[in-house]
Amino acid sequence: MAGGYIIGVDTGGTFTDTIILNTRGEVHIGKAPSTPPDFAGGVIDSLGEAARSAGLPLRDILRDCLLFNHGSTAATNALVTWRGAKTGLITTRGHKDVTIIQRAYGRVVGLSDDEVRHILATNKPRPIVPRSLIEEVTERVDYSGEVLVPLNEEEVRSAIKRYQDQGIEAVAVCLLWSFMNPQHERRIKALLHEMAPEIRVTLSSELVPVLGEFERMSSTLANAFLSVTVDRYYTTLARLLRQEGLRARPLIVQSSGGLLPIEESSARAIQSIGSGPVAGLVGAQALGALIGFGNIISTDVGGTTTDVGLILEGKPQMAMEPSVSQYPLAVPMVEVTSIGAGGGSICWVDDHGIMHVGPDSAGAVPGPACYGKGGTEPTVTDANLILGYLDPDYFLGGAMKLDREKALETVEQKLARPLKISPLEAAAGAYDIVNGNMVNAIRILTVQRGHDPREMVLFAYGGAGPIHAVAYGVELNVPLIAVPAAASIFSAYGATRMDILHKYELSRRMVAPFNPKAVTEIFEQLESQAKRDLEKDGVAKSAQSLHREVDMRFVLQVHEVSVPIRGKTLVAADIARLSTQFVELYEKMYGQGTALPHADMEVVRFRVSAVGKIPKPPVKPQPAGRSSAKHAIKGTRKVYFRDSRRNGGQSRAIRSGRLIATTVFDGLSLKPGNRMEGPAIVEYPTTTVVIPPTHVAKIDQFMNVLIR
Amino acid sequence: MKTNGKGGKANGRRAEAGLDAIAFEIVKNKMLAAINEAGAVLVRTSASEVVVTVREFTQSYYTSDGHLTLTGGGILLHVKSIADIVRYLIDNYEHTIGINDGDMFIFSDPYLGGMHAPDQAIVAPIFWQGKRVGFCASLTHIPDTGAIDAGGFCPRATEVYQEGIRLRGLRVMRGGVRCDDVFNTLKAAVRLPDIVELDVLSKIASNNVLIRRAQELIEKYGLETYLATNRELIRYSERLARERTRKIADGQWRSVTYLEHDGQQPNLFRIQLTATKRGDRLILDYTGSSPQAATSINATYHAAMGCAFAILAGRLFYDIPWNEGILRPLELRLPDNCIINAQYPAAVSQGMPAGGGVVVFAVQDVLSKMLLASGDDLRRESSGVFGWSVHAPVMSGSNQYGNFFIWPTMDECAGGMGARVDRDGVGTAGTIQTPKVRIGNIEEYEQRYPMLFLFRREEQDSAGAGKFRGGAGGEFCFMLHKSSTGYIDIMLSGAGCEPAIALGVAGGLPARQGRFVKVKDSDAAALLRQGRIAQSLQELTGEKEMLPPKGYARIENRDCFYLAWHGGGGFGDPLERGPELVRQDIIDQLVSRRFAECVYGVVVTGANADIDRAATARAREEIRRQRLAQAA
């Protein structure tokens, strides 16, 4: 790798994190408050912080930046806060209820089994476009792609006029069978451009040309809803970065676990949903591979949310049926579960005198009471300050002073007094409750799916993660808790460990015996697009790789098995092998004797994955030294710990606890091999690791903190 | 209403000595994960839409002596009766043909278990080190049974012998090897041999998952823990179910529903359910229901029991592990020779759409009344009845590729949810008995069958009115398209076309009845050629024939077929519904202005549907006056 910088930036709900790596393996990090709803300012602030810590002008760093990889919450945030475009939907006459009926399963998709079973408590998601704003147009194509009724352009024109009158900003177009014959969708797009160039258009035949109108329409609709917000963000960001001197083209982390250039990400807004958390999970995968763990529970505790993901046998788990907020999305997505629990989560007491934490968050503004920025609600961070986990003078490395008095005051007023307990006890209760919420979320992904946490390691990152990790790790009975060296900016780190990834799909039904020429033609069509795109991305030929796949099934089955295909121009023998390969894979998945070799087989979908390998900064191990960490001791302070009980988990009964004199270590002074017995606090500028009296921590040769 | 799950886990007072709370929880959840995984395997390998889309499948674990210890996922109607099948297997074959490692046994006899002959179960013993340690089973609804009618719902049948092949435990796998003799016999008996074979194989694959996962658990946690968890699961659920039952107000409630057709002619049957709740016991007594019919609309005991299980599981015991334990507080009293307890060899193939199906409504109805009389947390679980009537036309014929098809149309599974005590029901929501039910994409239908769907949508005014209204039901209409023979046949199997069955509660009104309509010699195709797509029956010319809920119809090239399915029942008096909410329903096209005026007494005017307050007050006053007049 030539000289220059690799930059990863991750925008979370509360903070924007930056990591700058150079080819010598040096690392600089920066952290700045996020600036919703326009997140671009926070990115620049965060970069500035990192440049300051590197002691170089930001302009120089950006000028010499080779790769700028960005995980962004813009899409997720717009969906969750419902700040999408005012959206319209144009569809085939007679079928406007597709996204209302939702094949009946929109009511349960993405819910846990427990939630699904409580039928009366379930609801369909809020519709992106209410029925009264959905426009039907007369046109009809049949299953073979034949036009039965030509598009009634007059109707399209009057629909567009109504949309203009109603101030519609984005339109999703999804017609029946458009993936077989996209001409009507394309014509509608042309008419929209002609009459209403200000309206942003998403066509289902361009975004997700696959069979199944509900999943296709749901994806198209979500994309249209997000398109304006996401595009505005990416455009602003690209402009600001150029102004600051960046020459490289920013790459955006996709839900698929790969990167795409920023312009393409704009057109495919739904694919950057969950972008930041996915980057974190890829980071956990990379770090796990480096230090020898394949089964990982990854937890990212930020200011607003905790994101939980799973790595099994070294691979991030992909969602079986991707969906966000009960909208199915027909795009590949790494599975990350988000809950409303973080440092900024607000603690409150209900009418029955029960304390709760979250899901509301004080966010970055006004933030926790102790920020002194006008926050009047007690938050988890306030509790952590009272319990002694945080040092008021060393938050963000001292860049921000925390006001302990304010924290005490709000906790006293809003929690302790109504509960008739001391502020310290109230803070400890808040800490327990938020940890319990995290445990529940992790259990849904692990225990409820039959993965035993006792056989996994827990990675804890995000600014607030290491404060809580041991507490929730104990409840889960994990044998090891790892706090990565880059914990506070881990998703930014993960963004630097990814490759460019495009996926191209086309639904076409072919019954065996397949015609090798026809199969080759479809792949060549997809691949020429793939090659054009990789070239446009500036990926060198040597770094490009294309992977072919078909989805096959026995005729009349509904689900498919993906079969990889090697070879360029396919001949009869390749095709014959395809059928054998399918039967082999099928029996491997479902058991010997479950295939039906004499039955007809069919191909229903063709897929090309195009990978553009990008350079990764090197990670060098350092030799382990002495175990004594005396040199790193900063002092001692009183820290609250629950009375010792190593293997908790069963009982939630409130236990007693007390303030214990606790050694505080300076994280930056620690060396590989150093060992610290709890109770101990390890302070880094951007995160704090809490080690209770029951546990021992060790610094490994990559500077990660491993706690047992 | 919430189980005190934490208390249950924390108090540690388990009947099983030595079974620690964490192991119990992990083993239980792993079994549930295995059930879900096996369900996913079934969905991915089956060729039946009823399985893949509508989720009519069941996986479950049983003790070695045949008690249901855990189920989840798919359809809940059949799980209880598979336990009876397992016990039949043990009683009859253990000491005769033997039950050995690697064996699997196939069953499809409604008099042993399941709802009707298409319900096919494969039972497999689970062995560990040469010893049988339990059973598992997978069940699906297969698309044909070789009955007198394609698809196995038989309106004209009068004896079970006409309803297709019934299997009583043939060994379909022997020591891990498939038995071709059984496969060949079964395939020779049905109309779609390949699909049926694939469905048998998919259940074998599903059982393989269940067996493998159970063995992994035993390997890891030890046989004793596995067995203790299985035993404890039933007791655990029983404890929680009894605790919950105790909280319901003591008393007696009644529900009466009707069936309007016997499959051959209009004929009225009464289903009367009296529920008595005392202490931790619940008695469901069907005394007073009609005697069994001479036709196939009867249900067996297993169907009646299965329907009760499904509703209690989904509505009352949703947070308790689903197994035999939740039925322990229940006593089912079925008179002999009753329409929902038919005696062999009565025909029963329509027992699910008819007799058994109506039980689903009756149990919901009494349950909602009971809960309404109970404490606040239970009262919240009361609701109008879910719209679902197995309004299932089974279509068959030649498709556009010239191949024979059978399609049990199950769009009515997107029934409306009943209104809740504080909120409207969800429209086109699904069913209780199959929590994750789906209906197909129109594109999937049109790719497989010779049809073109003119529309599919929620039906206006279909929801039961109330202070909170039920969720809407739906409607669709198709014409034949590129049919290779020019016709398809439809076997109708519905209920609730005349009597309202998705009832309201606390003064809420029932949802609109379902309908089947055939439009003879329509102009749908001619309209398409003119660039028009008909959007209602009114827009089509041709003779409109209201079809009976049960029977036969043939749809020919120029005909259209229309189906409307049920919404959910309402909650509370519609006159108490806020006029603003009614106005919103009008804007959302869920309620017509006429319906709003007649039923809700809400009058709106102009394009914006502004509420006319004075007219609304008058209309409501008038409706109240009429009610009083009728009462007198």
Strand order of the largest sheet of chain B: 2-1-5-4-3-6-7
Going by helix content, strand content and strand pairing, the class of chain B is alpha+beta
State the separation between the terminal residues of chain B, measured CA to CA.
40 Å
Largest sheet of chain B: 7 strands, antiparallel
Mean pLDDT of chain A: 90
Q: Beta-sheet strand percentage of chain A?
A: 25-35%
Question: What general form of chain B does the structure show?
Answer: globular
Could you tell me which chain pair has the largest interface and how many residues each side has?
A-B, 69 and 88 residues
Shape of chain A: globular
User: Low-confidence parts of chain B lasting 5 or more residues at pLDDT below 50?
Assistant: 1-15
Percent helix range of chain B: 25-40%
- Average of the residue pLDDT scores of chain B: 92
Number of helices of chain B: 15
The number of helical runs of chain A is 18
* Helix percentage range of chain A: 25-40%
Give me the oligomer status.
heterodimer
Integer count of domains of chain B: 3
- Hey, roughly how much beta strand do the residues of chain B contain? 15-25%
Number of strands of chain B: 22
End-to-end gap of chain A:
37 Å
Protein described:
The complex is a heterodimer of chains A (708) and B (632). Chain A has 708 residues and is of the alpha+beta class. Chain A has four domains: 5-79 and 232-272, Nucleotidyltransferase, domain 5, CATH 3.30.420; 84-223, Dna Topoisomerase Vi A Subunit, Chain: A, domain 2 (3-Layer(aba) Sandwich), CATH 3.40.1360; 275-305 and 340-498 and 621-708, no CATH class; 500-612, Dna Ligase, domain 1 (2-Layer Sandwich), CATH 3.30.1490. Chain A is 32% helix and 26% strand. Chain A contains 18 helices and 33 strands. In chain A, the strands form eight sheets. In chain A, strands 13, 14, 15, 18, 21, 22, 29, 32 and 33 form a nine-stranded mixed β-sheet that branches. Chain A has a six-stranded mixed β-sheet with strand order 3-2-1-4-11-12. In chain A, strands 6-5-9-10 form a four-stranded parallel β-sheet, with helices on both faces. In chain A, a hairpin with a 5-residue loop joins strand 11 (251-253) and strand 12 (259-261). In chain A, helix 3 packs across helix 9 and helix 12 (380-386) packs across helix 13 (404-419). The two termini of chain A are 37 Å apart. The model of chain A is unreliable at 646-654 (pLDDT under 50). Chain B is α+β, with helices and mostly antiparallel strands and 632 residues long. Chain B has three domains: 5-240, no CATH class; 383-573, no CATH class; 578-631, no CATH class. Chain B has a seven-stranded antiparallel β-sheet with strand order 2-1-5-4-3-6-7. Mean pLDDT of chain B is 92; it is low at 1-15. At the A-B interface, helix 5, helix 9 and helix 18 of A face helix 1, helix 2, strand 7, helix 6 and helix 11 of B.
